[in-house]
Amino acid sequence: MFQRVAFLFAGQGAQAVGMGQDLAAASAGARDLFARADAALGRSLSGLCFNGPLETLTASANCQPAITVASLASLAAFLEQRPVKPVACAGLSLGEYAALAAAGALDADTAVRLVAERGKLMDEACRASVGAMAAVLNGDPELVAKISAEAGIDVANFNCPGQMVISGAKDGVARAVEALKAAGVSRVIPLTVDGAFHSRLMAPAAERFQPVLAAAAIRAPACPVAQNVTGTLVTDPEAIRANLGAQVTGSVRWEACVRAILALGVEAVVEFGPGQVLAGFMKRIDKTVPVFNVGSQADLDKLLADPRWAA
To answer: Domain 5-125+200-309 belongs to what topology?
Structure first.
């Protein structure tokens, strides 16, 4: 069985009606996590995950805790079959909270409550502004950063070689898109989002989230967690807290996070939660490291059938 494994966790946008339902039916650990999330929030988050509707599930205030609990349920089902201790964890944006829970820095109930509040505040910041985001493919990072700054917007994501995301006021994003195309960057794709995540327009949410973070119990993790805003491995609880606060408006340095993890000599990576976005990024960053997904019972069965995971 693989000895040096890293755990990755999905971000917002991966949600789907029915996520986690088959795992909860088959795994006591997954069922318990959904039940605990329902109790922590005082509402049926599990019912929303399993039955939708999608429009309600997609709202940040619902989507963020829903993806977090579905991701942690996927992890619980996996650990029942293969009790692996990761050498490092990371999550894309929202997924960083599940990563911290997986590493033991947050308990699952705290993680769910934090992201529910984070999602609510981000929803409010979206409604109070007119923001937009766009994916920039195969652009030079320095050029993209320069044009974004000139347009008064921000680089939200450095996802993998050849993929960045810009974010900010809608008119600023439009100016940046035109400037990028004029500079020869032909593939700039507007994203269908509610607002400008990881940009200065999220500052009101970041400010209101600070006292919530300040009151949260954060412990030293059992393994390093690669944090988005620094792109480095972190173990100090107060550094983790500060980075979570900065993450709301800061850039997601996902490629740097992955490279920091791979430098530990990782033999395999497992992405937990709905979707396979991180697996796709991983293949662009380093094709030599095996990547697995656990977001459903079928995914878990496929992983367990692989002889490299033999107990």
So the answer is: Malonyl-Coenzyme A Acyl Carrier Protein; domain 2 (3.40.366)
Give me the residue label for tokens 């205030």. Answer: 61
Which secondary-structure segment (H or E) carries 278? helix 277-285
218 with 241: CB under 8 angstroms?
yes
Token pair in block for residue 101: 């829970």
Contact 263, 285 (CB under 8 A): no
Kindly report, residue by residue over 45-57, the tens digit of the pLDDT: 999 999 999 999 9
Per the structure block, which two tokens stand in for 37? Answer: 């999330």
Q: Give the pLDDT means over successive 10-residue stretches in the chain (311 positions).
A: 95 93 98 97 97 94 96 98 97 98 97 97 95 96 97 98 97 97 94 92 98 98 98 98 98 98 98 95 96 97 96 77
Q: How far apart are CA 211 and CA 209, in angstroms?
A: 6
- pTM reported for the whole predicted model: 0.97
Dist. CA 281–CA 67, nearest whole Å: 19
Which positions are catalytic? 93, 198
Listed by start position, the domains of the chain span: 5-125+200-309, 130-190
CATH code for the part of the protein at 130-190: 3.30.70.250
Determine the Cα–Cα distance for residues 235 and 238; give it in Å rounded to an integer.
9
Question: In this structure, what are the phi and psi dihedrals at residue 17, rounded to the nearest 5 degrees?
Answer: -65, 135
